[in-house]
Structures are given as C-alpha cells and as structure tokens.
Amino acid sequence: MKRLLALILAAILLVWWYHPAKLQPPPARPLILGVVPILNGFILEAHSRGFLKKEGINLVIQPYLTGRHLFDALIGGELDLGVVGLVPLALEAADHASLRILATTAKFHGLYRILANPEAGIHTPEDLQGHLIGLTRDSSMHYFLYNFLVNLRIPPSRVRLRYYDSPAHLPAALMAGEIDAYCAREPFLRSSRTPPSSETVVFDAPELWANLLNLVGLASRLEARSQDVSVLMRGLLKAEESLLSGGKWQESQPTPWHRAEYGLLLDQELVVQLEDVVRWSMRQKLGGPQRMPNFMAFIDHRFLDALKPDAVTLIH
For the CA atoms of 36, 42, 43, 48, what is the dihedral angle to 10 degrees? Predict the structure, then answer.
C-alpha cells in the first residue's frame, strides 16, 4: 500500500513538474519603436488591428512630439527602432556611423505651412521679406521655409529668423508679438489662436517638398534583434497588402491639406533628398556635416530585400 501511494505521489510530481505551463518560455522582450503619432497613421493602424501581434512580435510603440526628440532617444539607446524624417537623418548621420536606414515608410506632401500676422503687414508670401519668422533650427520646418522662399525668388537673407527649442512654443510667440510669422506642421498649427483683431494668414506649397519618413536603428541593436526586426517588417508588409491595396483603409487625415503615401520601400529618391538637405545645411552654414556623407553606407537593405525585393529600387 505504501509503495502504491509513493508511486501515485511520484506520478503527481512528474505531471506537475512537466506541466506545459511550466515549459512555456518567458515572455519575449518587447521591441520598442519610437514614432511621431500624427505622421505614422499606417503603423498605428497596423498595430491596433493586430497585424504585428499575429506575426508574433511583442511591439511597444513609444510616442514623441517631434522627430528630433525621437532621434535623440534612439541615439541614447532608449529605442530599438524609430521612424524619422529626412532632416534629422541627413544632418546627424555623419556623427553616428552606426545609424542604419531600413526602409522609407511614408511620403508626406503639404505637411508644412507658414502662419503670419497680417497686423505685421504680411498679406502675401512676398510680404515675409524683412519680417521675423519663428521656427526650430535645423528642422524639417527650417528646410521647408528655405525652399519656400527660394521658390518665390526671395533670398533667405531677406527674412529674419528666431529659433525656438520646440515648435510647441511658436503659437504663443505669435500671439505675444514676439514674431511676425512662424513655420510648422500639425499639431502646432491648429493650436494657434488668431492674433487680436486680425485673422491669421496662411501660406503653403503642397507640391514644393515631400518629406520621407524612414524606419531606422543602430547597427548593434539591429544585429541583436534582427529576427524581431524582420518579423516587424513582415507584419507591416502584410498590413500594407491588406489595408492599402484597393483603398480598403483611408486614414482620417489630421489636416485637410496634406497627403500621405504609405508603404515600405527603398528608392533612389531617399539618397537624392538626403544629399539635398546636406547641401542646404552647408550653404546656410548650419550645424550639419561639413562634407557630403556617403548615405549608401547607412542604408541596410537586407531586411526589405529578403521580404519584398521589388520594393528596393535604389542602386546598390
């Protein structure tokens, strides 16, 4: 009898010890992706609809107000990946040799606008000459303003600039009369109230410049998390096929004037635009590189090549 009880107890212990719940691996370490939410509607939609979870990726999305804040967090090791615009990439790449660009995720037209106070005598774009314009230095807004002026044949030296640490400060600066106009994107336009006794004048040029948003990471993180990165991109491509083909999903645009083209690709336009930003920085003697970087050395096409080779059209 004692022997039978001992055998039963041993069997119970074996069942408990080898129970499937005990054999399950610990939860996967999350992959942390930084985004500016207003510029990443497609990625947020793919995440919320479960396309990435279905692929088995434990993704945590970390929101940031601006691409500059996001880029600093990426370089500081707080993120595994981030989605960043052209200007931070172009101006910072030379100082961060381990930076890698995996794919362009979106192309934005008409994202930036100029808001001006007509009480300062600004009624047409040409009236910007001689006035004080607020913006954030070495930013996409800065680059857009330069191109906006050059397109109107207004020498950039004909306007005065005041730099702010964050575009969030610009609406209040316009209200207070510190500046006559400012250049920004949403959400720093809609929050701007009209100056007293006037209507804000708005200037834009939707087809002047299209900013490219890009999935980037540091080489060491990409090697350590290569499988997770591949799974993430596979999930995004599946979401792209399901949501974007045939217009099955239409983003609720944060503004009526900008247009976004979503989809993972690596095109020669990326390199051309990065080089154009560097030329602007050198021409204006800003804080970017003093020599043209070899941007092809920063592009890691392995992941997209393996998943969707026809999306890689740049020369490599």
Answer: 110
pLDDT digits (tens, 9 = 90+) for 180-213: 999 999 888 864 554 544 578 999 998 899 999 9
Please report, as a single letter, which amino acid is at residue 39. L
Residue by residue, DSSP assigns 248-292 as ------SSSS-EEEEEEEB-HHHHHHHHHHHHHHHHTT-SS-SS-
H or E element at residue 102: strand 99-109
| Phi, psi values for residue 256, rounded to 5° | -80, -10
Residues 260 and 263: their CA atoms lie apart, in Å, by 10
| CA-closest candidate to residue 103, choices 90, 84, 78 | 84
The DSSP call for residue 298 is: G
Place of tokens 């050059």: 150
User: Please, are residues 84 and 211 in contact by the beta-carbon 8 Å criterion?
Assistant: no
What's the chain's length in residues? 316
Distance, C-alpha 292 to centroid of its chain:
23
Q: How far from the centroid of its chain's Cα atoms is residue 206's Cα?
A: 19
- 76 Cβ contact list (under 8 Å, min separation 6): none
CA-to-CA distance for 262 and 254, rounded, in angstroms?
15
Helix (H, G, I), strand (E, B) or coil at 219: helix
* pLDDT, tens digit, 9 for 90 and up, residues 68-96: 999 999 999 999 999 999 999 999 988 99
